[in-house]
Each structure stands twice: as C-alpha cells, then as structure tokens.
Design brief:
Layout lengths: L9 E8 L8 E6 L2 E8 L2 E6 L13 E3 L2 E3 L6 E3 L16 E2 L1 E4 L2 E7 L1
Antiparallel strand pairs: 1-10, 2-3, 3-4, 4-8, 5-6, 6-7, 9-10
Length: 112
C-alpha cells in the first residue's frame, strides 16, 4: 500500500461513526488541507487522496465495486487497499492513508 506517511508521522483524525458510512458508500473530508475520500468497501474502510493519478481529477462520485474505485472522468480503476491501478498503463498508484476503527468510529491518519 502506498501510504502517505509512516505510522509515526501521522496524526489520526476522528471522522465519523462507522455505522454512518454503509458498504458501497464514500464521503469526502478535508484533513490538514488534504482532500481525503473515505470509502466503505467489502474489505472495510479505506482512505485515498481525492485525485485520480491519471488526470488529477476528483475520485468523488466514482463507482465503488468490491474493493476498487473507478474514476468518474476516465473510468480508470484502482485497488483501494493498495492504491495500485487495475488495468490500463501509465497510471500511478493512488495515495492511500491509514485507517483504523476504534470505539465504533473511523479514524484516518494524515501527515502533519
């Protein structure tokens, strides 16, 4: 997984109750000046930078399937757990952020 920072460099931000984001849904947050898209998928909660690595377009509004997200602009698909591109050539991995659930709440780690 391409994580934005090492675990010691991140500050975890309490974003929402886990029950408020059902599977197949996503929600956009701005954390420390960074647009972070939190996705509830089959494998749990994932957080990625809200930018497709192909054209820097927003991923918000893309399609979630299993553990992947598709860019709404070009259809590029990315694996949420690792950020890697699924198919297509020349796509860089997405920037991923560490996520944990504590006390029924979703927390995302962002550098700074």
């Amino acid at each position: 997984m391409q994580v934005d920072a090492s675990p010691s460099d991140v500050t975890y931000h309490d974003l929402l109750p886990a029950d408020d984001l059902p599977p197949g849904q996503m929600r956009l947050f701005t954390i420390a000046g960074e647009e972070v898209l939190v996705c509830s998928a089959v494998g749990g909660f994932f957080a990625v930078r809200n930018r497709c690595s192909h054209a820097e377009s927003p991923l918000e509004g893309g399609r979630l399937r299993q553990n992947s997200i598709s860019c709404p602009l070009h259809g590029a698909r990315f694996d949420l757990p690792t950020g890697r591109a699924l198919g297509g050539t020349g796509y860089r991995p997405l920037t991923c952020f560490p996520v944990k659930v504590e006390g029924g709440r979703v927390l995302v780690g962002v550098k700074g």
